[in-house]
Amino acid sequence: LLCPLWVGATCVMMPEFSPQQVWEKFLSSETPRINVFMAVPTIYTKLMEYYDRHFTQPHAQDFLRAVCEEKIRLMVSGSAALPLPVLEKWKNITGHTLLERYGMTEIGMALSGPLTTAARLPGSVGTPLPGVQVRIVSENPQREGCSYTIHAEGDERGTKGPSPCCCPDMPLLGFLPLPCWY
């Protein structure tokens, strides 16, 4: 939600999730028209289940795919791992290869696959976006009370900040010494 607002986009919010209403919005000629759609894998799965039940005629399937390819510029999946069968079936239905990404409310988008469809690697959230630094960490069994250490790096966009140490047996134990990164 923050990224579209950052660039001045109009966000269309629905009071609750309804696969029927989402498909109607995709196919509607009313404004504002959807041109970017972002959802979690579960939403895509529910939309495909609805599609399988209600868009059974080949002419309806062809129409739906044509509208999605022509009117929707980008479809994005995030917040959970995207199963390969969901990625493949969604492409067959809409003509869109979902862009996988990673972000959080606290930092916005951090990692993203490439916009170029052919360069996307299924199962990968991509590489750091401009200004984002990433650090990979390993287990730390010697650390008292916690079997791992949380590390991350940020950038000038404000992703630097205190990072809570979350352990299964000691949630929100405290804050790591500054400077620390999300």
UniProtKB/TrEMBL annotation:
Coiled-coil intervals: none
Annotated AMP-dependent synthetase/ligase domain residues: 1-140
Signal peptide residues on this chain, from the entry's feature table: none
Family to which the UniProt record says this protein belongs: Belongs to the ATP-dependent AMP-binding enzyme family.
Name used for this protein in its record: ACSF3 isoform 15
